[in-house]
Amino acid sequence: MASRLNPYISFGGNARQAMEFYKDVFGGTLALNTYGESGQQDTPEADQIMHAMLETPSGFTLMGADTPPGMNVTQGDNFSVSLSGDDDAELRGYWEKLSAGGSVAVPLERQMWGDVFGMCTDRFGVPWMVNISEPQA
């Protein structure tokens, strides 16, 4: 298996809902593992997500988990998830779904460097950047 770089997002108790939302946005296969399945079945966190991994048909991988008790989670302050490529329709589709119910910081429009770019924060507080470049000749 090749090495890969992908975001890993910590959630404050809503990892299942967030990861299912991302599956609805991007499609693919979502694997969810709870704390209970990992030997913590008699704890209040038994139904929370210990590890989630979404692998999409476009080759994206997104991982996440509910933050264990005692650890603080500050969502959106230390990362952005970047989507980039030259498939205008696909990337605009992701943008529409991600920005719905969230907030737009930079509208998806042509920028001074020539690409179409936008920044939004989805309804789960996760910041996204979408960059659409011209198709390569």
TrEMBL record:
UniProt cross-references to PANTHER family, sorted A to Z: PROTEIN YJDN (PTHR33990:SF1), PROTEIN YJDN-RELATED (PTHR33990)
Protein's name in the database: VOC family protein
Taxonomic lineage from the root: Bacteria, Bacillati, Actinomycetota, Actinomycetes, Kitasatosporales
Sequence ranges assigned to domain Glyoxalase/fosfomycin resistance/dioxygenase in this UniProt record: 5-130
Signal peptide extent: none
UniProt-listed Pfam families: Glyoxalase
